[in-house]
Amino acid sequence: MSEHIQSMKLHSPPESKHALDLEGLRKPEITFWSAWEANELVGCVALQELDSQHGEIKSMKTASSHLRKGVAKRLLQFMIKEARERGYRRLSLETGSMDVFKPARRLYASFGFQYCKPFSGYSEDPNSVFMTKEL
């Protein structure tokens, strides 16, 4: 989690940082998972229930030593499956608009996520991109 927060501090201005720290992940509407390879943490992801039919992907991160190994793809597949099992009709996310976030935006688009307006209390921000997928 500290690698994720450090990355957000490096690439996102404070007013546009939406990554949750450990305390932010301890809310009852948020479920957090970690992905492991043997005894090594390779990634993490959280799902926030916005309402009974809408979830938001939060804090998805691949450990820097495991980039480009398919970790993010597997985490995203897991999130979509979990959202469907929960009966959500829509899964949304916020990510950065800067070039460093292009690979993430390409991954989301490859899974059918489309750009959308801000949702759930977010507001227009030149540093943020909002995406959603009907399930």
From TrEMBL:
InterPro entries with a match to the protein in the record: Acyl_CoA_acyltransferase, Bact_Acetyltransf, GNAT_dom
A Pfam entry, by short name: Acetyltransf_1
Keywords, sorted A to Z: Acyltransferase, Transferase
Domain N-acetyltransferase: 1-135
UniProt KW Acyltransferase keyword: yes
Domain of life per record: Bacteria
UniProt xrefs under SUPFAM superfamilies: Acyl-CoA N-acyltransferases (Nat) (SSF55729)
Record's protein name: Acetyltransferase
